[in-house]
Amino acid sequence: MTCGRWQIINTRLFAFAALLTVLALGSSTSCTAPGEATASVELEHIRLPMGFIPNVQFAPFYVAVDRGYFADEGIEVEFDYSFETQGVQLVAAGELPFAVASGDQVILARAQGLPVVYIAEWWQRFPVAIASLAETGIDSPADLAGRTVGVPELFGASYIGWQAFLSATGLDPSQVKLETIGYSQVPSLNEGRVDAAVVYANNEPVLLAHEGVATNVIAVADYADIVSNGLVTSESVIAERPDFTRGFVRAFLRGLSDTLADPTAAFEISTRHVEGLAENAGFIGRVTHFRAVEVIAGVVGGVTIKPVPGYKTGISGGGDAGRNHAQHKNQSSQTNQFSTHNTPPYKRVPIIML
């Protein structure tokens, strides 16, 4: 073989090797690990009204942020801990794309002509309840007659839950003295300022139990079927940005699935988002979190844990927002379009019992 032929072969081999090197470099720079957004993709920043203060109950969102599930969908989430009524109004006005709110707020908003839509049911059991110290002897709705009941505000899920409770039980509102106490249910009960208080079943009763205080808890869900906390958007966002909406719900469901599969890991992630949670990790935070998981998973409270046939992320039923449900419930106020297409097979989760 001549020298010229060797030169041609060597030149072709060098060119082929150089091409492989370029392809390898291009491939290595374009791939990212799961949960990582590519550096070239600019995330869309959104503000998400949560409807409450930073709390371990929002673990699915914290998990979805920390594990990059929202980033995978091209979304950067900023948590806004304002009242849920404000969030619903901002979504209806087109100023924000999503909000966390209870189903009753959607019904009330639709009754006022606001174009909001409930797109994913998060909690499977309405968490609002009426709590009292055991010594008061308030064991049933009828026992509230002639008593003073504290409610955080005269709006929002707690107030709507109270109104639905009155309607469902037939308790005359004039027989009860209702006082606005803000989020001071625990001290208000302990100090005797009220006989009973409207609470979240997974929160204040747990805190009182930790203090060694025996309580009676009457769950609104035992008397009224109300669609609870979930994700809300507007008709315009659904119509104009269906893929964006689907991506947001998908990221949230991934965080929710992880929370149900490993509540302990979800709690640890929550400590990075909730000030003071790590210091209370010994009992209060963990039990509150696990009780929240009970409500999220549809588990009935108390010491008897009933089997959970399967978690549903779609909208399972009506929701009685006080006396307005029958008049204002309609198909356009809710949709399963974005929450049932990719529902994981959720399982029962470990429960910390009191």
Descriptive overview:
This protein has 354 residues and is of the alpha/beta class. It has two domains: 187 residues, D-Maltodextrin-Binding Protein, domain 2, CATH 3.40.190.10; 95 residues, D-Maltodextrin-Binding Protein, domain 2, CATH 3.40.190. It is built from 13 helices and ten strands. The strands form three sheets. A five-stranded mixed sheet has the order 7-6-8-5-9. Strand 6, helix 6 and strand 7 form a beta-alpha-beta unit. Helix 2 packs across helix 11 and helix 10 crosses helix 11. The longest helix is centred in the N-terminal third of the chain and has 28 residues. The radius of gyration is 25 Å and the shape is globular. The protein starts with a helix and ends in a 26-residue tail after the last helix. 44% of the residues are buried. The N terminus and C terminus are likely disordered.
Topology readout:
Elements: H1 3-30, E1 44-51, H2 59-66, H3 69-72, E2 75-83, H4 84-92, E3 99-102, H5 103-111, E4 116-121, E5 128-133, E6 148-151, H6 156-169, E7 177-180, H7 185-190, E8 196-200, H8 204-210, E9 215-219, E10 229-234, H9 235-240, H10 242-261, H11 263-270, H12 284-297, H13 325-328
Parallel strand pairs: 1-2, 6-7, 6-8
Antiparallel strand pairs: 3-10, 4-10, 5-8, 5-9
Helix pairs in contact: 2-10, 2-11, 10-11
